[in-house]
Amino acid sequence: QQSNVTSYGATASAIITLEAFAGMWINAFIICVLCIAWVKKKTLNSNEKILLLLGCCRFWHLCISSLYSFLSTVYPNFLHVHPIIQLSASFQTFFNYSTLWVSACLCGFYCIKIANFRNSCFIYLKGKIDRIVPWLLLGSEIFALAGSIIVYDVTETMHSNNLNFTCLRNFWEVSIRMDKHLFPSFFLLGFGYAASFTAVIFSAVFLLFSLWTHKRKMQTNSMKNLSMDAHIRAMKSILSFLVMYSINFVCLILTIIYVNDSENIMTLLITIYLNAFPGVHSLILIFSNPKLEKALLKILSCVKCK
């Protein structure tokens, strides 16, 4: 059984490395295109700011994940050195949290910018959204930093308990004590995931309702307008993200549940999906953004000609 787990671990490590490599290229493409546009125009709109930060967070998240997966397979004892595993878990959590919250900001931005409601609060947000976006991104990074500090404390506690309590008669007592100590930390981590997931759900629901009301108004007109096209394009992007985000949210919760069982096959499968998510969703964002899609098709056509 141990050999099977080891072979599964080696296979999962190879898959994770390939996923991370593909995801890094995809997000590096987004970063390069937006940085070139930034240099040419000397400015970025709010949508491009969110996409740039999202691409950077995903790129570094995949770099750290692939490095951790490689070291855990090639030189696993290196990860048991005191500060290494704590720092690795903390950095991965920081970039993962950043990805989740910045993605939620992107969904909220689409909703506020495209949806049409006559509510005074919504109209105020629509007018001020470009000024609010930098503060939302700053808040996302603060939440991510708080989550990484919590994970560092959790990992430090688990590491110290594993080192200090090796007697079997104290194992049950130590487990109960660890659970009591770690429950607030796990609750805060789960709350962070749930809050970002809730923001995505509300954005999708509001945009869908806005599309439905706008479609009713346009029933007498056989011509499509730009607002309808924008609704549909944003809705496709958010719904595809909502499906992936839902699976991602379940996997993150399962990661918390299986945090003490690193050799479980379920943990390996969850890790494979979590590393595939940043690349796949970034690819969806590329094809839902005209500028990024045009740049990608231009590169692919040049490669095909050569």
Note down, in words, how this protein is organized:
The chain is an all-alpha fold. The protein has one domain: Up-down Bundle (Rhopdopsin 7-helix transmembrane proteins). The protein is 87% helix and 0% strand. The chain has eight helices and no strands. The protein has helices at residues 2-41, 46-74, 82-114, 120-164, 171-217, 226-257, 265-288, 290-305. α1 packs antiparallel against α2 and α2 (46-74) packs antiparallel against α3 (82-114). The chain is globular. The termini are far apart.
Helix and strand arrangement:
Layout (H helix, E strand, L loop, with lengths): L1 H40 L4 H29 L7 H33 L5 H45 L6 H47 L8 H32 L7 H24 L1 H16 L1
Summary, kept brief:
87% of the residues lie in helices and 0% in strands. It has helices spanning 2-41, 46-74, 82-114, 120-164, 171-217, 226-257, 265-288, 290-305.
- The CATH class designation is Mainly Alpha
CATH topology: Rhopdopsin 7-helix transmembrane proteins
Report the strand count. Answer: 0
Spans with pLDDT under 50 lasting ≥5 residues?
Answer: 1-5, 163-178
Number of helices: 8
Number of separate structural domains: 1
If you average the pLDDT, what whole number results? 75
Taking the sheet with the most strands, its summary is: none
Distance between the termini: 50 Å
What is the annotated CATH architecture? Up-down Bundle
Binned, the helix content reads over 70%
Coarse structural class = mainly alpha
Order of helices and strands: HHHHHHHH
- Rg estimate, integer Å: 22 Å
